[in-house]
């Protein structure tokens, strides 16, 4: 019985790792779709987002089965509750990556995106997502804390882009639609950073129990 229980916990952990990898793939594809005007990567982002939705439902069922049938205690309970929190944030990362991919289709050959720091924000956000997943998988407390601190970098980039777009509009009001789309894209990146911060906090919550 104990062996079966441990197998269920291992399956849950592996599913979380897989969902995290899908989130990394979604944000990377959406960022490249935006920066490179790549329609195939837009399609890939949407396909990966569907996979994220499917695995979220699967993990939800795994958590429910563990809670109902195994009644986990102590660190095992923290593992399950952390998983329930993490999949919500990871699902939102998938949604927002898809939103970025959708909006990027309106930014083809846009001169505006090269005038602002959107590429830097995309890289910074991708780093947060990757590092937050790695902090959980590698049980790395310091990396989780670094992700939380790094959210300030993403927030600063969002404010910088906002100011750059305002200046761009002052010079050329004809690019208003492009500026608004870019501001929305920057906001999605900022929200993905918030979700990555939440993932790092979940990792700390889970790891705190294991250190006892």
Short description:
87% of the residues lie in helices and 0% in strands. With 212 residues, it is an all-alpha fold.
Please describe what this structure looks like.
The structure is a single chain. 87% of the residues lie in helices and 0% in strands. The protein contains 6 helices and no strands. Helix 1 (2-36) packs parallel to helix 3. The protein has one domain: Methane Monooxygenase Hydroxylase, Chain G, domain 1 (Up-down Bundle), CATH 1.20.58.220. The protein is an all-alpha fold and 212 residues long.
Helix/strand layout:
Elements: H1 2-36, H2 39-70, H3 74-104, H4 118-137, H5 141-171, H6 176-210
Helix pairs in contact: 1-2, 1-3, 1-4, 2-3, 3-6, 4-5, 4-6, 5-6
Identify the notable features of this structure and list them briefly.
single chain, 212 residues, mainly alpha, Methane Monooxygenase Hydroxylase, Chain G, domain 1, 6 helices, 87% helix, 0% strand
């Amino acid at each position: 019985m104990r062996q079966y229980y441990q197998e269920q916990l291992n399956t849950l952990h592996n599913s979380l790792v897989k969902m995290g990898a899908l989130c990394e793939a979604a944000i990377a594809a959406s960022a490249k779709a935006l920066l490179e005007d790549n329609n195939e990567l837009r399609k890939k982002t949407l396909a990966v987002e569907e996979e994220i939705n499917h695995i979220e439902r699967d993990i939800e069922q795994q958590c429910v089965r563990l809670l109902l049938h195994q009644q986990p205690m102590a660190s095992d309970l923290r593992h399950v509750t952390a998983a329930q929190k993490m999949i919500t944030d990871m699902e939102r990362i998938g949604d927002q990556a898809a939103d970025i991919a959708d909006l990027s289709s309106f930014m083809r050959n846009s001169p505006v995106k090269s005038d602002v720091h959107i590429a830097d924000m995309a890289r910074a956000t991708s780093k947060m997502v990757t590092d937050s997943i790695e902090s959980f998988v590698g049980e790395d407390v310091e990396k989780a804390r670094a992700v939380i601190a790094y959210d300030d970098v993403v927030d600063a980039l969002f404010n910088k882009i906002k100011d750059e777009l305002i200046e761009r509009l002052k010079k050329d009001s004809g690019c208003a639609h492009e500026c608004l789309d870019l501001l929305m894209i920057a906001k999605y990146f900022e929200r993905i950073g918030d979700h990555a911060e939440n993932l790092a906090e979940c990792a700390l919550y889970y790891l705190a129990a294991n250190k006892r």
